[in-house]
Amino acid sequence: MKKMTEENLKAAFAGESQAHMKYLAFSRKAEAEGKPNVARLFAAASYAEQVHATAHLRVLKGVGGTADNLGAAMAGEAFEVEEMYPAYIAAADAQEEKAAKTAFHRAMDAEVVHHQLYSRAKQAVEAGRDAEIGPVWVCEACGHTVEGTEPPDQCPLCQARKDKYVRF
Hints:
Elements: H1 3-32, H2 36-59, H3 66-94, H4 98-126, E1 136-139, E2 145-147, E3 165-167
Antiparallel strand pairs: 1-2, 1-3
Helix pairs in contact: 1-2, 3-4
């Protein structure tokens, strides 16, 4: 693939991915405000943006076998934990941006757990089997991620109640 086209696909993938997430957030807000038709419109557009992003990623050959995908996910999480979030936290601290610093810390804590779960899954896949991962719970308020039969009674990062965890 020629460099300019590859860079354009990467930019399009990033843009479509961001639009997908933004419209999903807009949909949830419209739903909370009692506007179900607007929520449905945003949800549909969000899904379309996801389809576009997935197509761009496929053209970029960004989806491999499961073991390769787990390795790529681990590398991404490691980058976020070791480089990206520490730099962002330092900048937010220097600029006295407390809310941003808190958000970055919470995300980084979740990324550590993601890396651990991906690592276990990769070992299992490379051994020719599926991963033995129990239910995974994610705090919808801050993204705290935990594996187990039940989530904690209170999120250790943001103090959200147990009922704010989503089970996967």
